[in-house]
């Protein structure tokens, strides 16, 4: 098991490195570069050149990347072009917000989606199954940022149950913190829950139609034991397969949801820095998000081994 | 962002053939979906003539009216007709989806063809690159590129197409590898076809089937992504009408006029549902 984890970790290194190169390359596409944006529309070529040399943008791209990478490895992601604040500090403030919302959303999506999918499969072709499938179809098609608006209208503006936006850190008390993240997380969980429902349903049906379930039925094993002990465990493998996809959806979706709920997370940071061409910040956010996804991919790979002993051999 | 097609659905389809109640309801749903999409295309083409008002025409004396006989979906904060803007918004939505699909296929198809056909180190290199791009959530990728190059519907959706192209490449590669050792490919070798003609004229058409389903799903995801990018101000720029950007403006006045926020959101959802329904139908046919 440890050897598998080790090997996967080693495989992640080139992907992570390539991803930072891709990020760096993407930001070089900008016509005129950030100095033109920072200097403003009426800036003279001299002042643009001065800004470029101050920010180190006049150096060759490869050298800029090398400097960034070597600094990044020591934990220094540079400082913002706009307010000169260290990127690592800005990220340390924004990351917990996104992590809390996305983590909570993942939990909600799993707790809602998987049981729904299992029930749907057990009661296959019933009215309940049909309703659950229609609901999961809606969940995949609904724009989450719009759902966020509707949720704010209903639960904050009309009913006054929850705050309409903003973030209360955990240091201000657990209650206030949970109130501020509950609605964003629930909205963000929508598409993930829908994907997991579908996947759990198809996994469960595949398991229920298999020969070992038939054998268990023939041997007189109680139906509840067949569902809960035999089939669910085997239906979880396809569910885990899409966890990486769900995590990606959550992280992409959090950008929009954070915007609607005015949360100071990494999504807001990404948009603000991208629009302002504040490259060090954009790059920092991307690095953290990519790192997050790579870790989740690793966890998914490892959990295969835990769920299905057959995969441990290869 | 690909969702594994559920094998369980196949069983249900066999058990719900044409003529049964479920079967009939399914095909009615498909007809509705195709009808809705056809209507959308019509509206996108003819919005200028169909829309009751010019989408940018302001009437500052009649703002946030809510639904009235003159303005069926009400007016926005500048007194512009919400329905007219909704109808005009169909155009960027469809253009955006087409741009994303065309870009993702224009990149992904050759990408997968070359990797699958040549194998070896070319395959490893191309697929490693695909894995790398796939690490980026597609929306995050599109935001970074659009922020760098500049906002706009074509840039933002081309960037989104680029972000999903590796998924297309993987699919095409798998199709090509499946076809490569079949007899007909050997025969094209015996007849002395060039590698290019073998790939494009013989292998490609046979490996396109799974692509059709996936591309339809991506078109739906692209409509959602574009609405999001427009909402963030990275796609269609206000005052141009678009569902996403109009939502961001309507949301500010949701307390006074909730209808203006409901209409674009429901339209987006119906569009995506209809596209997915067509995708399901294509999968059933294959």
TrEMBL record, chain A:
Q: Fetch the SUPFAM superfamilies from UniProt.
A: MetI-like
Question: Matching Pfam families, A to Z?
Answer: BPD_transp_1 (PF00528), BPD_transp_1_N (PF19300)
Q: Which UniProt keywords apply?
A: Cell membrane, Membrane, Transmembrane, Transmembrane helix, Transport
Tell me where on the tree of life, at the top rank, the source sits: Bacteria
- List residues of the ABC transmembrane type-1 domain: 95-300
**UniProt-listed Gene3D superfamilies:** MetI-like
The membrane-spanning stretches of this chain are: 101-122, 134-156, 176-196, 236-257, 285-307
Instruction: Say which family it is in.
Output: Belongs to the binding-protein-dependent transport system permease family.
Q: In its UniProt entry, what is this protein called?
A: ABC transporter permease
**Native species of this protein?**
Pseudonocardia humida
UniProtKB/TrEMBL annotation, chain B:
Family listed: Belongs to the binding-protein-dependent transport system permease family.
Predominant location: membrane
Q: What is this protein called?
A: ABC transporter permease
**Residue intervals of the ABC transmembrane type-1 domain:** 90-279
Does this UniProt record's set of keywords contain Oxidoreductase?
Answer: no
SUPFAM superfamilies attached to this UniProt entry? MetI-like
Which superkingdom heads the taxonomic lineage of this protein's source? Bacteria
Q: How does it sit in the membrane?
A: Multi-pass membrane protein
Q: Which InterPro entries match?
A: BP-dependent_transpt_permease, MetI-like, MetI-like_sf, OppC_N
Keyword entries, A-Z: Cell membrane, Membrane, Transmembrane, Transmembrane helix, Transport
Q: Where are the transmembrane segments?
A: 28-51, 93-114, 126-145, 250-276
- Work out whether the entry's keyword set contains Transmembrane helix: yes
PANTHER family, A to Z? D,D-DIPEPTIDE TRANSPORT SYSTEM PERMEASE PROTEIN DDPC-RELATED, OLIGOPEPTIDE TRANSPORT SYSTEM PERMEASE PROTEIN APPC
């Amino acid at each position: 098991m440890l050897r598998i984890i080790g090997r996967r970790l080693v495989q992640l290194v080139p992907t992570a490195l390539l991803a930072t190169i891709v990020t760096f390359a993407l930001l070089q596409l900008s016509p005129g570069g950030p100095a033109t944006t920072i200097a403003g529309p009426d800036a003279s070529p001299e002042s643009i050149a001065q800004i470029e040399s101050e920010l180190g943008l006049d150096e060759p791209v490869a050298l800029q990347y090398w400097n960034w990478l070597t600094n990044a490895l020591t934990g220094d992601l540079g400082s913002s072009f706009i307010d000169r604040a260290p990127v690592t500090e800005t990220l340390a403030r924004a990351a917990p917000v996104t992590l809390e919302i996305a983590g909570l959303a993942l939990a909600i999506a799993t707790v809602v989606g998987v049981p729904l999918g299992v029930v749907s499969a057990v009661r296959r072709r019933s009215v309940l199954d049909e309703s659950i499938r229609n609901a999961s179809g809606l969940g995949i098609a609904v724009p989450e940022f719009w759902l966020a608006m509707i949720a704010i209208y209903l639960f904050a503006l009309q009913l006054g149950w929850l705050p309409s936006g903003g973030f209360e850190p955990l240091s201000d008390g657990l209650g206030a913190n949970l109130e501020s993240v509950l609605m964003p997380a629930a909205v963000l969980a929508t598409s993930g829950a829908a994907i997991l429902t579908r996947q759990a349903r198809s996994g469960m049906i595949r398991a229920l139609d298999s020969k070992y379930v038939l054998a268990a039925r023939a041997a007189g094993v109680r139906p509840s034991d067949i569902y809960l002990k035999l089939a669910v465990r085997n239906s979880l493998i396809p569910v885990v397969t899409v966890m990486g996809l769900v995590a990606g959806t959550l992280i992409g979706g959090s950008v929009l949801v954070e915007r609607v709920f005015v949360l100071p997370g990494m999504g807001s940071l990404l948009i603000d820095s991208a629009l302002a061409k504040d490259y060090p910040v954009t790059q920092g956010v991307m690095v953290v998000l990519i790192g997050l996804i790579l870790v989740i991919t690793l966890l998914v790979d490892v959990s295969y081994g835990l769920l299905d002993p057959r995969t441990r051999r290869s | 962002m690909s969702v594994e097609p559920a094998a369980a659905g196949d069983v249900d389809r066999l058990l719900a053939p044409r003529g049964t109640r479920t079967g009939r309801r399914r095909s009615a749903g498909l007809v509705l979906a195709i009808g809705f999409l056809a209507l959308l295309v019509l509206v996108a083409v003819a919005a200028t003539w169909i829309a009751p008002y010019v989408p940018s025409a302001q009437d500052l004396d009649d703002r946030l009216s809510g639904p009235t006989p003159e303005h069926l979906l009400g007016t926005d904060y500048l007194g512009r007709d919400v329905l007219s803007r909704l109808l005009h918004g169909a155009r960027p939505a469809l253009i955006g989806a087409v741009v994303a699909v065309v870009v993702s296929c224009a990149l992904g198809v050759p990408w997968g063809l070359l990797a699958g056909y040549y194998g070896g180190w070319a395959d490893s290199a191309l697929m490693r690159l695909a894995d790398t791009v796939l690490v980026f959530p597609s929306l995050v990728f599109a935001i970074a590129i659009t922020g760098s190059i500049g906002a706009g519907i074509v840039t933002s959706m081309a960037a989104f197409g680029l972000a999903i192209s590796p998924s297309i490449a993987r699919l095409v590669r798998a199709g090509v590898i499946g076809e490569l050792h079949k007899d007909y490919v050997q025969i094209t070798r015996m007849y002395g076809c060039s590698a290019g003609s073998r790939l494009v004229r013989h292998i490609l058409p046979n490996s396109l089937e799974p692509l059709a389903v996936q591309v339809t799903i991506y078109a739906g995801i692209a409509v959602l992504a574009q609405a999001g990018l427009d909402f963030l101000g990275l796609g269609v720029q206000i005052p141009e009408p678009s569902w996403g950007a109009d939502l961001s403006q309507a949301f500010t006045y949701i307390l006074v006029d909730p209808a203006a926020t409901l209409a674009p959101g429901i339209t987006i959802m119906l569009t995506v549902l209809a596209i997915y329904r067509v995708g399901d139908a294509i999968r059933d046919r294959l």
